[in-house]
């Protein structure tokens, strides 16, 4: 029979095992860190695409003619400055009703919470939230097209230096910001539950950069 090892030998053998495992542990940590950085970089790239779309939409609204003539309530009109102001008032109120009078931060935050509650219930409930967000984007883009027509009419009537034109531009920029906030949420929703929680913890959602 071979003699059993002494407690001292066992102790030092354990230390050697610990030493051997340390490089592997450190390598794993390094790998996990690099992977997390790669994921965050991917989220940032998605975000940059959305922000570029937002900037292009704002620039197009300011510089290009709208695709169709100015239309309000589905009717062709001969526009006056007062008519443009009425249209602007109507569209801004319509947009704010759509987002329940929430600021961009509030919209993103509450829609995230709504998704989280739905995800805890069922995949069907989560899909309802996703579909609602898609519908919101469609509506907002449609309202932005109308603002484009109003802003272009004001450009022709009173010029780009007028208060009326600036007011139309403000509403247009608000709409494109809402579009960006919702599109960003949808992007991360498509990435799955882990991505949603990652973005929340790392403050990678666009709405988290907005004032509360």
UniProtKB/TrEMBL annotation:
Name the source's superkingdom: Eukaryota
Please report the name of this protein according to its UniProt entry. Answer: Uncharacterized protein
Q: Which organism is it from?
A: Coniophora puteana (strain RWD-64-598)
The organism that produces this protein has a lineage beginning with: Eukaryota, Fungi, Dikarya, Basidiomycota, Agaricomycotina
């Amino acid at each position: 029979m071979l003699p059993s090892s002494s407690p001292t030998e066992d102790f030092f053998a354990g230390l050697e095992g610990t030493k051997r495992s340390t490089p592997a542990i450190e390598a794993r940590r390094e790998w996990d860190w690099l992977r997390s950085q790669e994921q965050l970089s991917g989220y940032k790239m998605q975000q940059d695409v959305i922000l570029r779309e937002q900037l292009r939409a704002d620039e197009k609204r300011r510089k290009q003619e709208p695709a169709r003539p100015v239309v309000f309530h589905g009717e062709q009109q001969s526009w006056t400055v007062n008519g443009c102001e009425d249209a602007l008032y109507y569209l801004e109120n319509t947009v704010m009703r759509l987002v329940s009078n929430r600021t961009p931060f509030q919209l993103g935050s509450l829609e995230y919470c709504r998704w989280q509650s739905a995800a805890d219930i069922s995949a069907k409930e989560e899909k309802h939230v996703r579909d609602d967000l898609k519908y919101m984007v469609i509506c907002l883009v449609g309202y932005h097209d109308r603002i484009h027509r109003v802003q272009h009419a004001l450009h022709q009537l009173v010029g780009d230096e007028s208060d009326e034109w600036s007011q139309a531009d403000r509403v247009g920029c608000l709409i494109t910001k809402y579009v960006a906030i919702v599109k960003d949420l949808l992007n991360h929703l498509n990435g799955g539950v882990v991505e949603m929680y990652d973005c929340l913890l790392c403050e990678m959602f666009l709405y988290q950069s907005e004032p509360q």
